[in-house]
Protein backbone atom coordinates (compact mmCIF):
# COMPACT_ATOMS: atom_id res chain seq x y z
CA UNK A 1 0.00 0.00 0.00
CA UNK A 2 1.33 3.42 -0.97
CA UNK A 3 2.44 5.65 1.90
CA UNK A 4 3.02 9.37 1.98
CA UNK A 5 6.42 10.51 3.27
CA UNK A 6 4.78 11.51 6.56
CA UNK A 7 3.25 8.02 6.91
CA UNK A 8 6.63 6.31 6.62
CA UNK A 9 7.84 5.24 10.06
CA UNK A 10 11.03 3.42 9.10
CA UNK A 11 13.79 3.41 6.54
CA UNK A 12 12.27 0.22 5.14
CA UNK A 13 9.06 2.17 4.45
CA UNK A 14 11.03 4.97 2.78
CA UNK A 15 13.03 2.52 0.65
CA UNK A 16 9.89 0.67 -0.42
CA UNK A 17 8.27 3.92 -1.54
CA UNK A 18 11.37 5.08 -3.40
CA UNK A 19 11.57 1.69 -5.15
CA UNK A 20 7.87 1.98 -6.06
CA UNK A 21 8.42 5.44 -7.52
CA UNK A 22 11.54 4.35 -9.42
CA UNK A 23 9.53 1.54 -11.02
CA UNK A 24 6.77 3.99 -11.96
CA UNK A 25 9.32 6.40 -13.44
CA UNK A 26 10.78 3.61 -15.61
CA UNK A 27 7.29 2.81 -16.88
CA UNK A 28 6.82 6.47 -17.80
CA UNK A 29 10.21 6.57 -19.52
CA UNK A 30 9.23 3.45 -21.50
CA UNK A 31 5.99 5.14 -22.54
CA UNK A 32 7.92 8.27 -23.54
CA UNK A 33 10.35 6.13 -25.54
CA UNK A 34 7.45 4.64 -27.52
CA UNK A 35 6.56 8.18 -28.59
CA UNK A 36 10.17 8.80 -29.61
CA UNK A 37 10.04 5.70 -31.82
CA UNK A 38 6.76 6.86 -33.34
CA UNK A 39 8.17 10.34 -33.93
CA UNK A 40 11.04 8.82 -35.93
CA UNK A 41 8.54 6.81 -37.98
CA UNK A 42 6.59 9.97 -38.78
CA UNK A 43 9.66 12.13 -39.41
CA UNK A 44 11.09 9.82 -42.07
CA UNK A 45 8.36 10.21 -44.73
CA UNK A 46 7.97 13.89 -43.80
CA UNK A 47 11.66 14.49 -44.50
CA UNK A 48 12.27 15.86 -41.02
CA UNK A 49 15.60 15.60 -39.23
CA UNK A 50 15.98 13.98 -35.84
CA UNK A 51 17.33 17.18 -34.29
CA UNK A 52 14.85 20.04 -34.51
CA UNK A 53 16.45 22.83 -32.44
CA UNK A 54 13.24 24.79 -31.85
CA UNK A 55 11.57 21.69 -30.40
CA UNK A 56 14.65 20.82 -28.32
CA UNK A 57 14.57 24.31 -26.81
CA UNK A 58 10.85 24.03 -26.14
CA UNK A 59 11.23 20.69 -24.34
CA UNK A 60 14.10 22.07 -22.24
CA UNK A 61 12.06 25.15 -21.31
CA UNK A 62 9.11 22.89 -20.41
CA UNK A 63 11.34 20.75 -18.18
CA UNK A 64 12.63 23.84 -16.43
CA UNK A 65 9.14 25.30 -15.99
CA UNK A 66 7.72 21.99 -14.74
CA UNK A 67 10.56 21.63 -12.24
CA UNK A 68 10.00 25.14 -10.95
CA UNK A 69 6.25 24.50 -10.55
CA UNK A 70 7.02 21.31 -8.61
CA UNK A 71 9.44 23.14 -6.30
CA UNK A 72 12.46 21.32 -7.76
CA UNK A 73 15.86 22.62 -8.84
CA UNK A 74 15.26 23.77 -12.45
CA UNK A 75 18.96 23.66 -13.40
CA UNK A 76 19.27 20.04 -12.29
CA UNK A 77 16.15 18.85 -14.09
CA UNK A 78 16.89 20.82 -17.23
CA UNK A 79 20.26 19.05 -17.28
CA UNK A 80 18.58 15.65 -16.90
CA UNK A 81 16.21 16.52 -19.73
CA UNK A 82 19.09 17.70 -21.92
CA UNK A 83 20.63 14.23 -21.59
CA UNK A 84 17.26 12.58 -22.24
CA UNK A 85 16.73 14.73 -25.34
CA UNK A 86 20.24 14.02 -26.67
CA UNK A 87 19.76 10.28 -26.21
CA UNK A 88 16.42 10.49 -28.04
CA UNK A 89 17.94 12.48 -30.91
CA UNK A 90 20.77 9.98 -31.31
CA UNK A 91 18.25 7.13 -31.43
CA UNK A 92 16.17 8.93 -34.05
CA UNK A 93 19.31 9.69 -36.08
CA UNK A 94 20.03 5.96 -36.30
CA UNK A 95 16.42 5.12 -37.21
CA UNK A 96 16.36 7.88 -39.85
CA UNK A 97 19.70 6.78 -41.28
CA UNK A 98 21.41 10.06 -40.41
CA UNK A 99 24.15 8.24 -38.51
CA UNK A 100 25.28 4.63 -38.03
CA UNK A 101 25.69 3.04 -34.68
From TrEMBL:
<dbReference type="InterPro" id="IPR008241">
    <property type="entry name" value="Isochorismate_pyruvate-lyase"/>
</dbReference>
<protein>
    <recommendedName>
        <fullName>chorismate mutase</fullName>
        <ecNumber>5.4.99.5</ecNumber>
    </recommendedName>
</protein>
<dbReference type="InterPro" id="IPR002701">
    <property type="entry name" value="CM_II_prokaryot"/>
</dbReference>
<dbReference type="Pfam" id="PF01817">
    <property type="entry name" value="CM_2"/>
</dbReference>
<feature type="domain" description="Chorismate mutase">
    <location>
        <begin position="5"/>
        <end position="96"/>
    </location>
</feature>
<dbReference type="InterPro" id="IPR036263">
    <property type="entry name" value="Chorismate_II_sf"/>
</dbReference>
<keyword id="KW-0413">Isomerase</keyword>
<dbReference type="InterPro" id="IPR036979">
    <property type="entry name" value="CM_dom_sf"/>
</dbReference>
<dbReference type="InterPro" id="IPR051331">
    <property type="entry name" value="Chorismate_mutase-related"/>
</dbReference>
Amino acid sequence: MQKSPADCTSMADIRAEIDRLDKALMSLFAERWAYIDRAAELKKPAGLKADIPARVNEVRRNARKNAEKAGLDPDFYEDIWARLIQHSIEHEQVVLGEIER
